[in-house]
Write a structure and sequence with these properties.
Blueprint (H helix, E strand, L loop, with lengths): L4 E6 L16 E2 L2 E2 H8 L6 E4 L10 E3 L8 H9 L6 E6 L7 H12 L5 E5 L5 E9 H15 L8 H4 L4 E4 L12 H15 L1
Parallel strand pairs: 1-4, 1-6, 4-5, 7-9
Antiparallel strand pairs: 2-3, 6-8, 7-8
Length: 198
């Protein structure tokens, strides 16, 4: 799928549950959460990071949503503006167990069917629209319709977009959808990675 997809990594937000820490730069298993997302998209033609400019494991295209901290839907819209490929992988920068093979599977399930995207299911059965692959055209069309309906994308839930798309849900095997929203979650992710490394 190389060069057939671009990646958008959402790395903004205020991380209130982490006390305002720079969550994407939190190290888990010796690698920042942001770099874990970037490494998982190593096959992308280009990787767009929406958020403050930070040092990354490889070159990326940095952009900011307008206004800053306008929420994930506005951030996604800004990132997708720079996508050139027919498919886009969308990842939040708080997924410690995201891997390239998972990205490849999401893309395979999107490209090999009539759906508009493939979204990872969390262990609780809820889908995560920020751990997914989409057809770029479908996302752009959905963003246009959402903008026309609401007048702006600021602070709107991202599910306004994804609930209108035809999606395939990919079951979580092994807790790969786990995210780091709290320091307790960060500690659990570090312990799990350390155990796996041992």
């Amino acid at each position: 799928m190389r060069e057939c997809y671009d990646a958008v990594v959402l790395a903004g937000g205020r991380a209130r549950r982490l006390g305002g820490a720079d969550k994407p730069m939190v190290s888990v298993g010796g690698v920042s959460l942001l770099d874990r997302a970037i490494q998982a998209c190593a096959g992308a033609g280009r990787t767009i990071v929406v958020g403050p400019r930070r040092a990354t494991v490889r070159p990326v295209h940095h952009v900011r949503e307008q206004p800053v901290h306008a929420g994930p839907l506005a951030a996604l819209a800004e990132g997708v503006r720079w996508v050139r490929a027919p498919f886009v992988v969308v990842l939040a920068a708080d997924l410690p167990f995201v891997r390239q093979e998972l990205v490849t599977e999401l893309l395979r399930q999107t490209a090999g069917s009539g759906v508009e995207g493939a979204v990872m299911l969390e262990t609780q059965g809820r889908d995560n629209p920020l751990f997914a692959a989409y057809r770029t055209a479908a996302v752009r069309q959905g963003l246009r319709l959402t903008l026309a309906q609401h007048g702006a994308l600021t602070d709107l839930p991202i599910r306004l977009l994804t609930n209108a798309l035809v999606l395939r849900h990919v079951p979580d095997v092994g807790g790969v959808s786990f995210d780091c929203d709290t320091w307790e979650a960060v500690a659990l992710a570090r312990a799990r990675l350390k155990l796996n490394a041992g």
